[in-house]
Protein backbone atom coordinates (compact mmCIF):
# COMPACT_ATOMS: atom_id res chain seq x y z
CA UNK A 1 0.00 0.00 0.00
CA UNK A 2 2.80 2.48 0.93
CA UNK A 3 4.74 1.66 -2.24
CA UNK A 4 1.61 2.17 -4.33
CA UNK A 5 0.90 5.52 -2.68
CA UNK A 6 4.49 6.66 -3.25
CA UNK A 7 4.24 5.63 -6.89
CA UNK A 8 1.06 7.65 -7.36
CA UNK A 9 2.48 10.70 -5.54
CA UNK A 10 5.74 10.59 -7.48
CA UNK A 11 4.21 10.30 -10.94
CA UNK A 12 3.51 14.06 -11.45
CA UNK A 13 7.06 15.09 -10.49
CA UNK A 14 8.53 12.23 -12.51
CA UNK A 15 6.46 13.29 -15.51
CA UNK A 16 7.73 16.89 -15.25
CA UNK A 17 11.26 15.64 -14.67
CA UNK A 18 11.05 13.41 -17.75
CA UNK A 19 9.94 16.26 -20.00
CA UNK A 20 12.64 18.53 -18.56
CA UNK A 21 15.63 16.23 -19.03
CA UNK A 22 14.57 14.74 -22.39
CA UNK A 23 12.98 17.72 -24.09
CA UNK A 24 13.94 20.78 -22.03
CA UNK A 25 10.27 21.67 -21.52
CA UNK A 26 9.09 23.01 -18.17
CA UNK A 27 5.46 21.91 -17.74
CA UNK A 28 4.79 23.38 -14.31
CA UNK A 29 1.63 25.47 -14.30
CA UNK A 30 1.19 25.45 -10.51
CA UNK A 31 4.85 25.91 -9.54
CA UNK A 32 5.22 22.42 -8.07
CA UNK A 33 8.50 21.45 -9.78
CA UNK A 34 11.87 22.23 -8.19
CA UNK A 35 13.12 23.94 -11.37
CA UNK A 36 11.94 27.55 -11.65
CA UNK A 37 11.80 29.69 -14.78
CA UNK A 38 11.98 33.50 -14.99
CA UNK A 39 9.98 34.55 -18.04
CA UNK A 40 11.31 38.12 -17.86
CA UNK A 41 14.89 37.05 -18.65
CA UNK A 42 15.94 37.47 -22.28
CA UNK A 43 17.36 34.58 -24.25
CA UNK A 44 20.87 36.10 -24.20
CA UNK A 45 20.93 35.53 -20.42
CA UNK A 46 19.25 32.13 -20.57
CA UNK A 47 22.14 30.15 -19.16
CA UNK A 48 22.96 32.59 -16.41
CA UNK A 49 19.59 33.70 -15.08
CA UNK A 50 16.55 32.13 -16.74
CA UNK A 51 16.43 28.84 -14.82
CA UNK A 52 17.19 28.10 -11.18
CA UNK A 53 16.53 25.57 -8.43
CA UNK A 54 13.50 26.24 -6.24
CA UNK A 55 14.91 24.98 -2.93
CA UNK A 56 11.57 24.76 -1.16
CA UNK A 57 10.25 22.27 -3.74
CA UNK A 58 13.25 19.92 -3.85
CA UNK A 59 12.24 16.42 -2.68
CA UNK A 60 13.99 15.57 0.55
CA UNK A 61 15.37 12.33 -0.92
CA UNK A 62 17.03 14.15 -3.88
CA UNK A 63 20.74 14.89 -3.31
CA UNK A 64 21.81 18.44 -4.17
CA UNK A 65 24.30 17.18 -6.77
CA UNK A 66 21.47 15.36 -8.55
CA UNK A 67 19.37 18.55 -8.65
CA UNK A 68 22.29 20.50 -10.11
CA UNK A 69 22.73 17.99 -12.92
CA UNK A 70 19.00 17.97 -13.65
CA UNK A 71 19.05 21.77 -13.85
CA UNK A 72 22.03 21.75 -16.23
CA UNK A 73 20.44 19.13 -18.50
CA UNK A 74 17.36 21.24 -19.17
CA UNK A 75 19.45 24.40 -19.46
CA UNK A 76 21.67 22.70 -22.01
CA UNK A 77 18.72 21.55 -24.12
CA UNK A 78 17.12 24.99 -24.06
CA UNK A 79 20.43 26.72 -24.74
CA UNK A 80 21.10 24.55 -27.79
CA UNK A 81 17.59 25.09 -29.13
CA UNK A 82 16.95 28.77 -28.32
CA UNK A 83 20.40 30.38 -28.27
CA UNK A 84 22.48 28.19 -30.58
CA UNK A 85 19.49 27.73 -32.95
CA UNK A 86 20.13 24.01 -33.31
CA UNK A 87 16.85 22.14 -33.78
CA UNK A 88 18.12 18.58 -33.56
CA UNK A 89 16.99 16.11 -30.94
CA UNK A 90 19.86 15.99 -28.44
CA UNK A 91 18.58 13.13 -26.26
CA UNK A 92 17.31 10.38 -28.54
CA UNK A 93 16.78 7.60 -25.97
CA UNK A 94 14.04 7.88 -23.33
CA UNK A 95 14.44 5.26 -20.61
CA UNK A 96 11.07 6.17 -19.10
CA UNK A 97 11.45 7.50 -15.58
CA UNK A 98 7.89 6.49 -14.71
CA UNK A 99 8.33 2.79 -15.50
CA UNK A 100 7.41 0.73 -12.49
CA UNK A 101 10.40 -1.58 -12.74
CA UNK A 102 12.72 1.35 -11.97
CA UNK A 103 11.08 2.18 -8.64
CA UNK A 104 11.22 -0.64 -6.13
CA UNK A 105 12.81 0.61 -2.88
CA UNK A 106 13.66 4.24 -2.17
CA UNK A 107 17.43 3.78 -2.30
CA UNK A 108 17.21 1.68 -5.44
CA UNK A 109 14.96 4.26 -7.10
CA UNK A 110 17.36 7.13 -6.39
CA UNK A 111 20.38 5.09 -7.50
CA UNK A 112 18.76 4.20 -10.82
CA UNK A 113 17.52 7.75 -11.28
CA UNK A 114 21.07 9.04 -10.76
CA UNK A 115 22.36 6.62 -13.41
CA UNK A 116 19.78 7.86 -15.89
CA UNK A 117 20.50 11.51 -15.08
CA UNK A 118 24.27 10.94 -15.38
CA UNK A 119 23.88 9.46 -18.86
CA UNK A 120 21.58 12.24 -20.05
CA UNK A 121 23.76 14.93 -18.45
CA UNK A 122 26.86 13.58 -20.18
CA UNK A 123 25.15 13.43 -23.58
CA UNK A 124 23.61 16.91 -23.29
CA UNK A 125 26.81 18.53 -22.02
CA UNK A 126 29.01 16.92 -24.67
CA UNK A 127 26.70 18.00 -27.46
CA UNK A 128 26.49 21.55 -26.14
CA UNK A 129 30.28 21.80 -25.81
CA UNK A 130 30.71 20.43 -29.34
CA UNK A 131 28.32 23.03 -30.75
CA UNK A 132 29.93 25.79 -28.71
CA UNK A 133 33.50 24.99 -29.70
CA UNK A 134 33.11 23.70 -33.26
CA UNK A 135 30.11 25.38 -34.82
CA UNK A 136 30.53 28.71 -33.02
CA UNK A 137 34.35 28.57 -32.81
CA UNK A 138 34.57 29.62 -29.19
CA UNK A 139 38.24 28.66 -28.87
CA UNK A 140 39.11 30.70 -31.96
CA UNK A 141 37.45 33.74 -30.40
CA UNK A 142 39.44 33.24 -27.20
CA UNK A 143 42.69 33.12 -29.15
CA UNK A 144 41.67 36.24 -31.09
CA UNK A 145 40.99 38.12 -27.86
CA UNK A 146 44.37 37.01 -26.53
CA UNK A 147 46.11 38.22 -29.68
CA UNK A 148 44.43 41.60 -29.94
CA UNK A 149 43.10 42.66 -26.53
CA UNK A 150 45.95 41.05 -24.59
CA UNK A 151 48.52 42.28 -27.14
CA UNK A 152 49.69 38.82 -28.18
CA UNK A 153 49.93 39.77 -31.87
CA UNK A 154 53.15 41.72 -31.43
CA UNK A 155 53.71 42.88 -35.01
CA UNK A 156 50.15 44.17 -35.30
CA UNK A 157 50.23 45.98 -31.94
CA UNK A 158 53.56 47.64 -32.70
CA UNK A 159 52.42 48.70 -36.17
CA UNK A 160 49.14 50.08 -34.82
CA UNK A 161 50.88 52.05 -32.06
CA UNK A 162 53.47 53.50 -34.42
CA UNK A 163 50.76 54.69 -36.81
CA UNK A 164 48.60 56.12 -34.02
CA UNK A 165 51.42 57.51 -31.84
CA UNK A 166 51.33 61.12 -32.98
CA UNK A 167 47.52 61.26 -33.27
CA UNK A 168 46.98 59.87 -29.77
CA UNK A 169 49.48 62.36 -28.35
CA UNK A 170 47.18 65.23 -29.32
CA UNK A 171 43.87 66.33 -27.90
CA UNK A 172 41.28 63.58 -27.66
CA UNK A 173 38.64 65.91 -29.08
CA UNK A 174 40.52 65.94 -32.39
CA UNK A 175 40.24 62.18 -32.89
CA UNK A 176 37.83 60.93 -35.55
CA UNK A 177 36.45 57.40 -35.48
CA UNK A 178 36.69 56.93 -39.24
CA UNK A 179 40.38 57.86 -39.19
CA UNK A 180 41.05 55.44 -36.32
CA UNK A 181 39.16 52.69 -38.13
CA UNK A 182 41.18 53.32 -41.29
CA UNK A 183 44.43 53.14 -39.31
CA UNK A 184 43.28 49.89 -37.72
CA UNK A 185 42.56 48.45 -41.16
CA UNK A 186 45.99 49.55 -42.42
CA UNK A 187 47.73 47.92 -39.43
CA UNK A 188 45.85 44.69 -40.09
CA UNK A 189 46.72 44.61 -43.79
CA UNK A 190 50.40 45.34 -43.20
CA UNK A 191 50.99 42.60 -40.60
CA UNK A 192 50.31 38.90 -40.11
CA UNK A 193 46.92 39.80 -38.67
CA UNK A 194 45.65 39.86 -42.26
CA UNK A 195 45.73 36.06 -42.31
CA UNK A 196 43.11 35.74 -39.58
CA UNK A 197 39.62 34.64 -40.58
CA UNK A 198 37.35 37.38 -41.90
CA UNK A 199 34.85 36.75 -39.10
CA UNK A 200 37.58 37.42 -36.52
CA UNK A 201 38.78 40.64 -38.13
CA UNK A 202 35.25 41.99 -38.56
CA UNK A 203 34.76 41.78 -34.80
CA UNK A 204 37.88 43.84 -34.05
CA UNK A 205 37.15 47.54 -33.72
CA UNK A 206 38.27 50.74 -31.99
CA UNK A 207 36.36 52.73 -29.42
CA UNK A 208 36.76 55.98 -27.53
CA UNK A 209 35.80 56.51 -23.92
CA UNK A 210 34.00 59.59 -22.75
CA UNK A 211 36.30 62.57 -23.25
CA UNK A 212 37.09 64.86 -20.34
CA UNK A 213 38.72 68.29 -20.64
CA UNK A 214 42.47 67.97 -21.12
CA UNK A 215 42.41 64.32 -22.17
CA UNK A 216 44.81 63.16 -24.86
CA UNK A 217 44.06 60.33 -27.23
CA UNK A 218 45.99 57.90 -25.03
CA UNK A 219 43.43 58.31 -22.24
CA UNK A 220 40.37 57.50 -24.35
CA UNK A 221 41.54 55.04 -27.02
CA UNK A 222 40.92 51.31 -26.82
CA UNK A 223 40.50 48.25 -29.00
CA UNK A 224 37.30 46.25 -28.64
CA UNK A 225 36.26 42.77 -29.76
CA UNK A 226 32.56 42.29 -30.48
CA UNK A 227 30.87 39.04 -29.49
CA UNK A 228 27.30 37.82 -29.85
CA UNK A 229 25.22 34.80 -28.88
CA UNK A 230 26.03 32.16 -27.87
CA UNK A 231 29.69 33.09 -27.13
CA UNK A 232 28.57 36.08 -25.06
CA UNK A 233 27.32 33.61 -22.46
CA UNK A 234 30.97 33.20 -21.43
CA UNK A 235 32.32 36.44 -22.91
CA UNK A 236 29.61 38.53 -21.26
CA UNK A 237 29.70 42.25 -20.56
CA UNK A 238 31.45 41.78 -17.20
CA UNK A 239 34.16 39.63 -18.79
CA UNK A 240 34.68 42.08 -21.67
CA UNK A 241 34.96 44.94 -19.18
CA UNK A 242 37.78 43.07 -17.45
CA UNK A 243 39.46 42.48 -20.81
CA UNK A 244 39.21 46.21 -21.45
CA UNK A 245 40.91 47.03 -18.13
CA UNK A 246 43.69 44.57 -18.90
CA UNK A 247 44.10 46.00 -22.41
CA UNK A 248 44.44 49.54 -21.06
CA UNK A 249 47.19 48.45 -18.65
CA UNK A 250 49.10 46.53 -21.33
CA UNK A 251 48.60 49.36 -23.84
CA UNK A 252 50.12 51.86 -21.38
CA UNK A 253 53.06 49.53 -20.82
CA UNK A 254 53.57 49.12 -24.56
CA UNK A 255 53.41 52.90 -24.95
CA UNK A 256 56.25 53.24 -22.44
CA UNK A 257 58.28 50.68 -24.35
CA UNK A 258 57.72 52.45 -27.68
CA UNK A 259 58.38 55.88 -26.16
CA UNK A 260 61.71 54.76 -24.69
CA UNK A 261 62.55 53.18 -28.03
CA UNK A 262 61.94 56.49 -29.75
CA UNK A 263 64.10 58.26 -27.17
CA UNK A 264 66.93 55.81 -27.81
CA UNK A 265 66.59 56.22 -31.59
CA UNK A 266 66.91 59.98 -31.26
CA UNK A 267 69.86 59.59 -28.92
CA UNK A 268 71.64 57.50 -31.54
CA UNK A 269 70.78 59.97 -34.30
CA UNK A 270 72.04 63.04 -32.44
CA UNK A 271 74.80 61.67 -30.22
CA UNK A 272 77.58 62.11 -32.78
CA UNK A 273 76.35 65.47 -34.07
CA UNK A 274 75.95 66.94 -30.59
CA UNK A 275 79.53 66.09 -29.70
CA UNK A 276 80.29 69.39 -31.40
CA UNK A 277 78.35 71.09 -28.60
CA UNK A 278 80.59 70.13 -25.65
CA UNK A 279 78.44 72.11 -23.19
CA UNK A 280 75.78 69.36 -23.47
CA UNK A 281 78.08 66.46 -22.66
CA UNK A 282 77.25 66.13 -18.96
CA UNK A 283 73.52 66.57 -19.55
CA UNK A 284 73.51 63.97 -22.33
CA UNK A 285 75.33 61.49 -20.10
CA UNK A 286 72.72 62.06 -17.42
CA UNK A 287 69.94 61.51 -19.98
CA UNK A 288 71.47 58.22 -21.10
CA UNK A 289 71.73 57.04 -17.51
CA UNK A 290 68.11 57.93 -16.78
CA UNK A 291 67.00 56.24 -20.00
CA UNK A 292 68.85 53.04 -19.07
CA UNK A 293 67.13 52.88 -15.68
CA UNK A 294 63.71 53.54 -17.20
CA UNK A 295 64.23 50.94 -19.93
CA UNK A 296 65.26 48.36 -17.35
CA UNK A 297 62.18 49.06 -15.25
CA UNK A 298 59.76 48.92 -18.20
CA UNK A 299 61.34 45.72 -19.54
CA UNK A 300 60.93 44.00 -16.18
CA UNK A 301 57.32 45.15 -15.87
CA UNK A 302 56.54 44.00 -19.42
CA UNK A 303 58.18 40.63 -18.82
CA UNK A 304 56.16 40.19 -15.63
CA UNK A 305 52.85 41.06 -17.29
CA UNK A 306 53.39 38.96 -20.39
CA UNK A 307 55.06 35.81 -19.08
CA UNK A 308 54.34 35.53 -15.37
CA UNK A 309 50.78 36.82 -15.51
CA UNK A 310 49.25 36.33 -18.97
CA UNK A 311 50.99 33.21 -20.25
CA UNK A 312 50.89 31.32 -16.96
CA UNK A 313 47.21 32.17 -16.44
CA UNK A 314 46.42 31.28 -20.06
CA UNK A 315 48.08 27.88 -19.70
CA UNK A 316 46.08 27.13 -16.54
CA UNK A 317 42.87 28.26 -18.23
CA UNK A 318 43.41 26.02 -21.27
CA UNK A 319 43.98 23.04 -18.99
CA UNK A 320 40.78 23.80 -17.07
CA UNK A 321 38.88 24.37 -20.33
CA UNK A 322 40.00 21.03 -21.78
CA UNK A 323 38.82 19.28 -18.61
CA UNK A 324 35.49 21.13 -18.43
CA UNK A 325 32.46 18.87 -18.23
CA UNK A 326 29.83 21.45 -19.05
CA UNK A 327 29.35 25.12 -19.87
CA UNK A 328 29.27 26.10 -16.19
CA UNK A 329 32.77 24.70 -15.79
CA UNK A 330 33.92 26.77 -18.78
CA UNK A 331 32.39 29.93 -17.30
CA UNK A 332 34.03 29.30 -13.93
CA UNK A 333 37.41 28.57 -15.55
CA UNK A 334 37.20 31.71 -17.68
CA UNK A 335 36.19 33.90 -14.75
CA UNK A 336 39.07 32.48 -12.70
CA UNK A 337 41.41 33.23 -15.61
CA UNK A 338 40.35 36.87 -15.72
CA UNK A 339 40.32 37.28 -11.95
CA UNK A 340 43.83 35.85 -11.71
CA UNK A 341 45.10 38.35 -14.28
CA UNK A 342 43.27 41.23 -12.58
CA UNK A 343 44.80 40.39 -9.21
CA UNK A 344 48.32 39.62 -10.41
CA UNK A 345 48.41 42.62 -12.76
CA UNK A 346 47.68 44.95 -9.84
CA UNK A 347 44.21 45.86 -11.11
CA UNK A 348 42.22 44.53 -8.16
CA UNK A 349 40.77 46.75 -5.43
CA UNK A 350 43.41 45.60 -2.93
CA UNK A 351 46.15 46.61 -5.41
CA UNK A 352 44.87 50.09 -6.09
CA UNK A 353 47.90 51.67 -4.43
CA UNK A 354 50.29 49.70 -6.67
CA UNK A 355 48.32 50.66 -9.76
CA UNK A 356 48.44 54.35 -8.89
CA UNK A 357 52.17 54.18 -8.19
CA UNK A 358 52.81 52.42 -11.50
CA UNK A 359 50.82 55.06 -13.35
CA UNK A 360 52.89 57.75 -11.58
CA UNK A 361 56.10 56.11 -12.82
CA UNK A 362 54.72 55.99 -16.36
CA UNK A 363 53.84 59.69 -16.11
CA UNK A 364 57.45 60.48 -15.13
CA UNK A 365 58.66 58.58 -18.21
CA UNK A 366 56.41 60.66 -20.44
CA UNK A 367 57.67 63.86 -18.80
CA UNK A 368 61.23 62.69 -19.40
CA UNK A 369 60.47 62.00 -23.06
CA UNK A 370 59.09 65.51 -23.55
CA UNK A 371 62.02 67.08 -21.66
CA UNK A 372 64.58 65.21 -23.73
CA UNK A 373 62.83 66.15 -26.97
CA UNK A 374 63.06 69.78 -25.90
CA UNK A 375 66.74 69.28 -25.05
CA UNK A 376 67.53 67.81 -28.45
CA UNK A 377 65.57 70.56 -30.18
CA UNK A 378 67.56 73.20 -28.30
CA UNK A 379 70.84 71.42 -28.99
CA UNK A 380 69.99 71.02 -32.69
CA UNK A 381 69.09 74.69 -32.98
CA UNK A 382 72.37 75.73 -31.36
CA UNK A 383 74.35 73.37 -33.57
CA UNK A 384 72.55 74.66 -36.64
CA UNK A 385 73.37 78.27 -35.74
CA UNK A 386 77.03 77.43 -35.17
CA UNK A 387 77.17 75.66 -38.52
CA UNK A 388 75.59 78.69 -40.18
CA UNK A 389 78.18 80.95 -38.57
CA UNK A 390 81.02 78.76 -39.83
CA UNK A 391 79.53 78.57 -43.33
CA UNK A 392 79.01 82.32 -43.44
CA UNK A 393 82.58 83.02 -42.24
CA UNK A 394 83.98 80.60 -44.83
CA UNK A 395 82.02 82.20 -47.68
CA UNK A 396 83.18 85.70 -46.64
CA UNK A 397 86.81 84.59 -46.45
CA UNK A 398 86.56 83.19 -49.97
CA UNK A 399 85.35 86.60 -51.10
CA UNK A 400 88.44 88.20 -49.56
CA UNK A 401 86.66 89.65 -46.53
CA UNK A 402 87.05 89.16 -42.81
CA UNK A 403 85.29 85.95 -41.82
CA UNK A 404 83.87 87.43 -38.63
CA UNK A 405 83.43 91.06 -37.74
CA UNK A 406 83.70 92.41 -34.20
CA UNK A 407 79.94 92.77 -33.91
CA UNK A 408 79.32 89.26 -35.20
CA UNK A 409 81.91 87.83 -32.88
CA UNK A 410 80.28 89.60 -29.93
CA UNK A 411 76.85 88.35 -30.94
CA UNK A 412 78.09 84.77 -31.26
CA UNK A 413 79.91 84.95 -27.95
CA UNK A 414 76.85 86.35 -26.18
CA UNK A 415 74.61 83.65 -27.62
CA UNK A 416 77.09 80.89 -26.76
CA UNK A 417 77.47 82.20 -23.21
CA UNK A 418 73.70 82.31 -22.72
CA UNK A 419 73.39 78.78 -24.04
CA UNK A 420 76.08 77.38 -21.74
CA UNK A 421 75.21 79.41 -18.64
CA UNK A 422 71.41 79.48 -18.80
CA UNK A 423 69.88 76.95 -21.20
CA UNK A 424 72.16 73.98 -20.45
CA UNK A 425 71.94 74.36 -16.62
CA UNK A 426 68.17 74.69 -16.92
CA UNK A 427 67.93 71.38 -18.78
CA UNK A 428 70.39 69.81 -16.35
CA UNK A 429 68.25 70.88 -13.39
CA UNK A 430 65.12 69.60 -15.10
CA UNK A 431 66.73 66.21 -15.71
CA UNK A 432 67.91 66.02 -12.11
CA UNK A 433 64.36 66.66 -10.93
CA UNK A 434 63.00 63.94 -13.22
CA UNK A 435 65.72 61.58 -12.06
CA UNK A 436 64.76 62.20 -8.43
CA UNK A 437 61.06 61.76 -9.18
CA UNK A 438 61.72 58.50 -10.99
CA UNK A 439 63.94 57.11 -8.24
CA UNK A 440 61.46 58.01 -5.51
CA UNK A 441 58.46 56.72 -7.46
CA UNK A 442 60.15 53.41 -8.23
CA UNK A 443 61.33 53.11 -4.62
CA UNK A 444 57.79 53.62 -3.27
CA UNK A 445 56.47 51.13 -5.82
CA UNK A 446 59.06 48.52 -4.87
CA UNK A 447 58.31 49.04 -1.18
CA UNK A 448 54.68 48.18 -1.88
CA UNK A 449 55.64 45.16 -3.99
CA UNK A 450 58.02 43.68 -1.46
CA UNK A 451 55.32 43.91 1.23
CA UNK A 452 52.81 42.03 -0.94
CA UNK A 453 51.70 38.52 0.11
CA UNK A 454 52.04 37.45 -3.54
CA UNK A 455 55.52 35.90 -4.02
CA UNK A 456 55.54 36.80 -7.73
CA UNK A 457 55.22 40.49 -6.88
CA UNK A 458 57.99 40.25 -4.32
CA UNK A 459 60.14 38.53 -6.92
CA UNK A 460 59.40 41.37 -9.34
CA UNK A 461 60.70 43.90 -6.81
CA UNK A 462 63.99 42.02 -6.48
CA UNK A 463 64.43 41.79 -10.25
CA UNK A 464 63.83 45.50 -10.73
CA UNK A 465 66.34 46.30 -7.96
CA UNK A 466 68.75 43.56 -8.99
CA UNK A 467 71.82 45.55 -7.89
CA UNK A 468 70.16 46.97 -4.73
CA UNK A 469 70.47 50.55 -5.96
CA UNK A 470 67.01 51.55 -4.74
CA UNK A 471 67.49 49.69 -1.48
CA UNK A 472 70.51 51.88 -0.71
CA UNK A 473 69.00 55.15 -1.96
CA UNK A 474 65.28 55.04 -1.05
CA UNK A 475 64.80 54.70 2.74
CA UNK A 476 61.17 53.56 2.46
CA UNK A 477 62.12 50.63 0.24
CA UNK A 478 65.19 49.80 2.33
CA UNK A 479 62.97 49.52 5.43
CA UNK A 480 60.32 47.49 3.63
CA UNK A 481 62.72 44.91 2.19
CA UNK A 482 64.87 44.43 5.31
CA UNK A 483 62.90 41.31 6.42
CA UNK A 484 63.57 39.69 3.03
CA UNK A 485 67.20 40.69 2.51
CA UNK A 486 70.05 40.63 4.93
CA UNK A 487 72.22 43.66 5.71
CA UNK A 488 74.26 45.03 2.82
CA UNK A 489 77.46 43.14 2.22
CA UNK A 490 80.45 45.51 2.16
CA UNK A 491 82.93 43.84 -0.10
CA UNK A 492 84.77 44.70 -3.23
CA UNK A 493 83.09 43.46 -6.35
CA UNK A 494 83.23 44.11 -10.03
CA UNK A 495 80.92 46.79 -11.31
CA UNK A 496 77.85 45.18 -12.89
CA UNK A 497 77.41 45.51 -16.63
CA UNK A 498 74.28 47.56 -16.09
CA UNK A 499 73.86 49.91 -13.16
CA UNK A 500 70.83 52.26 -13.10
CA UNK A 501 72.60 54.95 -11.10
CA UNK A 502 72.81 58.61 -11.93
CA UNK A 503 75.80 59.85 -9.93
Q: How are the secondary structure elements laid out?
A:
Layout: H1 2-23, E1 35-37, H2 46-50, E2 51-53, H3 64-83, H4 106-135, H5 138-148, H6 154-168, H7 177-189, H8 198-203, E3 204-208, H9 217-220, E4 221-225, H10 237-271, H11 281-322, H12 327-344, H13 352-398, H14 406-450, H15 455-464, H16 469-473, H17 475-481
Antiparallel strand pairs: 1-2, 3-4
Helix pairs in contact: 1-3, 3-4, 6-7, 10-11, 10-12, 10-13, 11-12, 11-14, 11-15, 13-14, 14-15, 14-17
Oligomer: single chain
The Cα radius of gyration reads: 33 Å
Fraction of residues in H or I helices: 55-70%
The total of beta strands comes to 4
Distance between the termini: 97 Å
The main β sheet shows up as:
2 strands, antiparallel
How much of the sequence is in beta strands? under 5%
Spatial strand arrangement across the major sheet: 1-2
Gross morphology: elongated
What is the succession of H and E elements?
HEHEHHHHHHEHEHHHHHHHH
- Coarse structural class: mainly alpha
Point out poorly predicted stretches: 487-503
Written overview of the protein:
It is a single chain. Helix 10 runs antiparallel to helix 11 and helix 13 packs antiparallel against helix 14 (406-450). The chain is mainly α. The protein has helices at residues 2-23, 46-50, 64-83, 106-135, 138-148, 154-168, 177-189, 198-203, 217-220, 237-271, 281-322, 327-344, 352-398, 406-450, 455-464, 469-473, 475-481; strands at 35-37, 51-53, 204-208, 221-225. It is built from 17 helices and four strands.
What is the structure about, briefly put?
With 503 residues, the chain is mainly alpha-helical. The chain has 17 helices and four strands.
